[in-house]
Amino acid sequence: MAQADVTGQLENGRETFTGQVVGGDLTLRGSSGRTCQGSVDNLYYAILVSCSDGTSGSISMQFVTARDQGAIATGTIGDQNVNLSVGPFSCPNADGIVTGCTLAVADRYGNRTVNIIGG
Q1: Which of 41, 50, 71, 81 could be a cystine partner for 11, CB 3.0 to 4.6 Å?
Q2: Across the chain, how many H-helices and E-strands are there?
Q3: CB 83 within 8 A of CB 71
Q4: 114: which residues sit within 8 A by CB, 6+ positions away?
Q5: Closest by CA position to 103, among listed 79, 80, 86, 85
Q6: Cβ contacts of 97-101, under 8 Å, gap ≥ 24
Q7: Which domain does 40 fall in, by range?
């Protein structure tokens, strides 16, 4: 299963985020103390997030296709724009060895996949 660390901040710089993507699930921890969680939504081609302070939002990813795989994620949390860096992706098998893997990515018409090759 693909996994990657996430870092970023609100566009206004008032809050920073760290977290992780595992498969199609995103977890963020904000410097304000809130946590946000979400999963890929098949209809909207985005990760819909809900936060511990009652805010929610939508984040989409654009995948980088170089060997050092990663993604740039942008969207909103509450009424604020957020910019995140994701990756590089790690794809360990059951023995902890990094191999090629497949990350499920949703689109508006159903599911497709993106093959992420481990380094």
Answers
A1: 81
A2: 0, 10
A3: no
A4: 63, 102, 103, 105
A5: 86
A6: 101/1, 101/2
A7: 3-116
